[in-house]
Amino acid sequence: MRLMILLGLALALPFNIARAQADDSRVTLIGHDEVASAFSKGKPLIEVADYKIHASRRDSAGIAEIHTRDTDIAYVLQGAATLVTGGTAVGMRSIGPEELRGVAIEGGNSRRLVAGDVVVIPNGVPHWFKVVKRPFLYYVVKVRQANRQTTLGAAR
């Protein structure tokens, strides 16, 4: 219940659309039309040093991901997907600071996500949207944390 309240509050947070902010001390608002536009394409709403907020959209399966410092807190708005977490990440390579991508995950735990679900993926845990019923819309808050040892082989 507390998590739902916190996510509800997070959904009401004022933020700036699709622009990085160096300073997160000011109040910003993104109007509903801009938010709807962001979900139509799937794009970041705000990215600052300690957190990111994304209007995410998937219309097909994704690639395997590992965020070495960002913990994902996602609230599913529409659609359904099979999320695989843990296991062994296949073909991982760095695409930028603290971001790894690969072709798939072998093993791991599969979970079916539907509208209304909340999932927390700790930093360092491989994850992959293997099957997607489109459009799959989900609101993500990425919280920057201290480095965690990346788990390329342990199921979670």
Task: Produce a short descriptive summary.
13% of the residues lie in helices and 49% in strands. By secondary structure, the chain is mainly β.
Model description:
The protein has 156 residues and is mainly beta. The protein has a single domain (2-144), classed as YhcH/YjgK/YiaL (Jelly Rolls). Helices cover 13% and strands 49% of the residues. It is built from two helices and twelve strands. It has helices spanning 2-11, 32-41; strands at 19-20, 43-47, 51-58, 64-67, 70-85, 88-90, 93-96, 99-102, 104-106, 109-114, 118-121, 127-144. The strands form three sheets. Strands 1, 2, 3, 5, 10, 11 and 12 form a seven-stranded mixed sheet that branches. It starts with a helix and ends in a 12-residue tail after the last strand.
List keywords for this structure.
globular; 3-stranded antiparallel β-sheet; Jelly Rolls; mainly beta; 156 residues; 13% helix; disordered N terminus; 12 strands
Beginning-to-end CA distance, first to last residue: 23 Å
Q: What series of H and E elements makes up the topology?
A: HEHEEEEEEEEEEE
* Helix-residue proportion: 10-25%
CATH class: Mainly Beta
Q: Enumerate the spans where pLDDT stays under 50 for 5 or more consecutive residues.
A: 1-19
User: What name is given to the CATH topology?
Assistant: Jelly Rolls
Give the overall pLDDT as a whole number: 85
Let me know the number of strands: 12
Structural class: mainly beta
**Strand-residue proportion:** over 45%
Number of helices: 2
Rg of Cα set: 15 Å
Number of domains: 1
Secondary structure: elements and pairs:
Layout: H1 2-11, E1 19-20, H2 32-41, E2 43-47, E3 51-58, E4 64-67, E5 70-85, E6 88-90, E7 93-96, E8 99-102, E9 104-106, E10 109-114, E11 118-121, E12 127-144
Parallel strand pairs: 1-2
Antiparallel strand pairs: 2-3, 3-12, 4-8, 5-10, 5-11, 5-12, 6-9, 7-8
